[in-house]
Amino acid sequence: MADQFASGGLGLNAADVTRRRAVQMIEMGEFDTAIALATDALKARPRDAQMLWVIGEALTGLGRLTDAAIKLRQALGVHPEHDNALCSLAEIHRMQGDPEKALELITRARAFSTSTRPYTLGASILADMGQYEQAAALLEPKIKVDNPDTRIVVAYADLCIALKQPEIGIDLLEAALTRGELHTGVRSGALMILGRLLDRVGRYDDAFNAYKRANDMRSTNEEQRADAIFEGWSKDAIAAAPRTRVKTDRSVLVVGMPRSGTTLTESVIAAHPDAAGVGESQLLMTMRRATTAAELTQASVDSMAKRYTDMLAREGSKTATRVVDKMPDNYQNLGLAACALPQTRVVWCQRDPRDVCLSCYFQNFGTRHAYTCDLELTAQRYLLHTQLMEHWKSTGSHPPTSPCTSSATRSSSPTWTARSAPCSGSWACPTTSAASPRTRRRARSPPPAATRSASRSTRPPRPAGNATRSTSGPWSRSSKQAGPSDMQGTNPNAMAQQALQAFQRGDYPRAESLCRQLLKIAKNDPGILNMLGTCLTRQGKLGEAREHLRASLKRNPRSEQAWCDLAFNLRLDDKPDEAFDAIDRVLRTDPTNGQALHLKAMLCNDLGKPDEGLAFIEPVATAPGAPPATVIAYAMLSRTPEHQARGVELLEALLANPGTPPGVKRSALYQLGALRDRLKDHDAAFEAIAKASAFVPQGAVTPAQPTIDAWNAETLARIPQAELDASCVVLVVGMPRSGTTLTEQIIAAHPRADGVGERADLGHLARAHPVDALDQASVNEVGTTYVNALRARAGDEPERIVDKMPGNAMHLALASRALPGARAVWCRRDPRDIVLSCHFQDFGDVHRYTSDLELCAQSVVEHTRLMRYWQQALDLPIHEMVYENLVDDPEGQTRALCAFLGLDYDPACLEFHSAGRFVRTLSHAQVRRPIYKSSSARWKAYETQLAPAIEILSAAGLIEN
To answer: How far, in Å, CA of 210 to CA of 206, rounded?
Structure first.
């Protein structure tokens, strides 16, 4: 769907769409994703110069300059006149300190290029060398034409400060900004340069207004929270983690807020004969995303240390005594540095926070540091940064070396100082600075050594009158303007970009809001309609979502992605027949469409026909170059040992492919763990799940106490019960993987009952009606709305209707007031089996805590605490359904359940597996069989790995030692 949206309905072919998507990923700083997309495209067209160039650009962004240069030269070998590849290669030579070679490549590009990049880049390189007049001469022919390209104007205006002609630059930019519609990024960049020029001539109010207009076009970030870092890298967690045995004393990390002096500090250090620099390396950032201190092993820290030291040697120097990595954002990664780089030195650059905030606000960071477009968010980020740095300092020393790590100094953590770092030898590193030389940033995340402040720190001095101008304390000139700034997002191009970015990071409410605004401008655009429909689907608003999805298809009926999105929506809404019809529309046109095949296979599984799904997907999944989705579906549907063994082979081949995207790797690893488990290869199964969990953003445990406090005895006494009969309602709740689906199927198989699956209605109503605002009218509204929604989903007016949303455990107090006569069934199971089963499941964007065994155990503890409170505080009848008791005595437990529900026992309840009901939860396979015991005490095969979780559960009294 995102590809269709990105293409803007222009009829681009698949290669163009992939290239655009990859370039977009580069602009967003998602370099690994861009590489994966382009690598996958190269399988079909190995000599595609565009894709080779994309990989080169992405590798540059990751700081892998040598590898990037190889790819760019390969692109030029295929297409010698590829101007973008020439310019990108020139950028690398510029970063590596070879401007002459860079200019040679730029000259080649200008010979046949019709774009502006060879001219703007060439002028920038000449400016780096202090050759401002030559840079201006290169641009002047392009400036003198009618309506010159705005990029040329911006580049020339930027030179006007060094040329001592700021008024000329101001006139050029103001004229350019009055011309027609400009791309948002170009307009924003022009306004940034205009602000700089106005600042230079003392027009501070006008300068601030220019900067504000530029920042208002950028997409802001929410305030970043450091809670996860504090929790994952606590003092105790760092102390307990292993230290690498690899020698890491060459590395120096220069960290701080952007515009705090990191570039100047790096330049000071790198100027020493025994030192070198690698610029801003992304490597430590990439490694920290995948782990927390508790997940570190001796092997992992050794691997990380080797990767990092190899990078220093490759991109910096093999012989220098110290090599500097000046990525400012590494302040977030110093916990990992204490373990994987224990001998490294850390320099923390500080500056007056008012100057930092203002200088960040006045800087064009492209898509990086998006918080800097809002002064308040920048200030909040400064506070967060300071809190983290103080946290790292407070961690102190570590325990003594253990015998197995004697080659590393286990007690050595990064050496801290706010003013200097204790460096071996005769040199030292001051970190307090005024502003580094004024900078111009590229529109994407700068790679190592690519920051303009880094390149200009080595250039000849500016002409007299500019070189000595002080930049310390500029906040004082603009303090009166430094109030809140709201991003208006009135530019359609900017809004479209923001919507796509929000969708890709999973912020569906934000993407929905932007899409609705865009539809007021671009009415009936199929791409926007489809994105809006998909956002609504992901939020559970299935009916409204379908209206937009069908509207999109009405305007673009050939969109395979839109048909798949509609099928996915219909599957979630328990409409398998309509979903099959939508999928068949795709497969008639493209019989090998991986997404459609995967959806069809899952629908077959939902209906209890896994063999049928496997039969049609097997020829595609086992063929060379099979779509990853079909391989994963094949593995999921495998039931026999032969199919499972074949599924393992296919998944391992998919995982071995370096071009496999991270999201696909995550799904493949979860399926590999499931297959290994079924084949009784328990160690390999757990290893696969551990690798899969590394791709899941860490979640948080929802504590019980806030809910208990909100629904205390006084509140429960104050809120009246609704004036209606809700005796049809049966709420089946529990932890995920506790038997909720099985319980629902048993009840729904009764002739006088029905089930509606997992409904989000009660949760939505709870959020729309806060507890403090509940009164008679609101509880009546909640109850009526909810009961009507359940009855609309159920058939033939059953006496009992089951909603088996496990998360409704949070809302039982509301149910006790809004649903008089309702009943709740609490599904329980050995908590060790719950933790293990949850950990082995890919829950997508929900239940993220399940990727961590200890967090999962804590969730069980909090859930149990809440349910025990409900049992003693509510007048809502709650029946405990214990999984182990059910499998030991199915009939006895089912009779007791029917009695609780006010139903006569019916043997049909134990024939639920023959009912052929549509089941799309993760337990769909289990409820297609009679009740069995093999899932009981499954945890015993993984007792060693579960030890940390078992300790938490035992301490809470949930299991016996």
So the answer is: 6
Q: Can you give the pLDDT at residue 442?
A: 29
Q: What CA–CA distances, in Å, run from 401 to 240, 389, 409, 709, 904?
A: 11, 25, 6, 46, 67
Tell me if 187 sits within 8 A of 215, measured CB to CB: no
In whole angstroms, give the CA distance from residue 117 to residue 614. 52
Terminal Cα distance for the chain, rounded: 51
Nearest one of 420, 402, 450 to 57, comparing CA atoms: 450
Other C-beta atoms within 10 Å of 183: how many? Answer: 13
Given a contact cutoff of 8 angstroms between Cβ atoms, the answer to whether 191 and 213 are in contact is: yes
CA–CA distances in Å: residue 781 to residues 162, 348, 717: 68, 57, 19
Report the 3 state secondary structure along 283-337: HHHHHHHCCCHHHCCHHHHHHHHHHHHHHHHHHCCCCCCEEEECCHHHHHHHHHH
What is the distance between the alpha carbons of residues 526 and 518, in angstroms, rounded to a whole number?
A: 12
Indicate the range of 26-35, 93-102, 218-227, 574-583 predicted with least confidence: 218-227
- Does the reported pTM lie above 0.85? no
Who contacts 488 (Cβ-Cβ below 8 Å, separation ≥6)?
A: 216
Q: Both tokens of residue 273?
A: 């004969």
Cα–Cα dist 706/312, whole Å: 48
- In degrees and rounded to multiples of 5, residue 71 shows phi and psi of -65, -40
Contact 655, 672 (CB under 8 A): yes
Alpha-helix runs per DSSP H in 410-525: 452-456, 475-478, 492-504, 508-521
What dihedral do alpha carbons 475, 480, 484, 486 form, nearest 10°? -100
Residue holding tokens 């009166």? 480
Q: Is 176 exposed, middle or buried (0-12, 13-18, 19+ CB in 10 A)?
A: buried
- Reading the block at residue 417, the tokens are 């100082």
Residues 383/504, Cβ–Cβ less than 8 Å = no
Q: What is the per-residue pLDDT for 912?
A: 62
Token pair listed for 440: 């111009």
Q: Residue 461: is it exposed, middle or buried by C-beta count within 10 angstroms (0-12/13-18/19+)?
A: exposed
Which tokens go with 59?
Answer: 């590798």
- Identify residue 223 by its one-letter amino acid code: E
Q: Is the pLDDT of residue 758 over 60?
A: yes
Average pLDDT over residues 603-631: 83
Give the closest residue to 195 by CA, choosing from 180, 182, 177, 179: 177
Cβ–Cβ contacts within 10 Å for residue 402, how many?
Answer: 12
Enter the DSSP assignment of 698.
P
| DSSP single-letter state for residue 684 | H
> What are the helix (H) ranges across 769-841?
776-793, 812-818, 831-839
Q: Is 840 helix (H, G, I), strand (E, B) or coil?
A: coil
Can you tell me the distance from the alpha carbon of 578 to that of 546, in angstroms, rounded to the nearest whole number?
12
pLDDT at position 714 over 90 = yes
For 28-115, where are the alpha helices, taking DSSP H only?
31-44, 49-61, 65-78, 83-95, 99-110
Q: How many CA atoms lie within 13 A of 607 on its CB side?
A: 16
**DSSP secondary structure of 932-944:** -STTTTGGGGGTT
Q: Which residues contact 365 (CB under 8 A, 6 or more apart)?
A: 258, 372, 441
CA-closest candidate to residue 193, choices 218, 165, 173, 219: 173
What the block records as the tokens of 812 is 């039982």
- Please answer whether residues 196 and 467 qualify as being in contact, where contact means their C-beta atoms are separated by less than 8 angstroms: no
Residues in the chain: 961
Cα separation, 608 vs 623, in Å, equals 25
3-state secondary structure of 734: strand
For 934, residues 6+ apart whose C-beta sits below 8 A from its C-beta are none
